[in-house]
Design brief:
Distance between the termini: 11 Å
Order of helices and strands: HHHHH
Radius of gyration: 11 Å
Oligomer: single chain
Length: 75
C-alpha cells in the first residue's frame, strides 16, 4: 500500500524531471508557488480536481499519470 505522504515526493520528482521550478509549475496550473510547495511537503493534500488539471496540463505519459494517481490515493 502506498501512503498518502508519498505524493509530495512523487510530485517533486516529476516536476524536477520535467525541468520545472515550483513557480513555473504553479504558473502552468494557475496556482501559486506556495501551493505547490505545500503539496510537495505534505502541508496540503491534493484534490482530485487539481490532480487531473496537473496531469492534463503537463501532458504526462500514462505511466507518469499512474504514478501520481497511485501516490495520491486516488488510483
Amino acid at each position: 500500500m502506498i501512503s498518502e505522504s508519498s505524493f509530495g515526493p512523487a510530485l517533486r520528482d516529476m516536476r524536477e524531471g520535467l525541468g520545472l521550478s515550483q513557480l513555473a509549475l504553479a504558473a502552468k496550473l494557475s496556482s501559486t508557488q506556495r501551493h505547490i510547495s505545500f503539496l510537495e511537503t505534505g502541508r496540503s493534500r491534493i484534490t482530485l480536481d487539481f490532480l487531473q488539471r496537473l496531469v492534463v496540463e503537463l501532458n504526462l505519459s500514462t505511466a507518469q499519470r499512474g504514478a501520481l494517481f497511485a501516490s495520491s490515493g486516488f488510483a
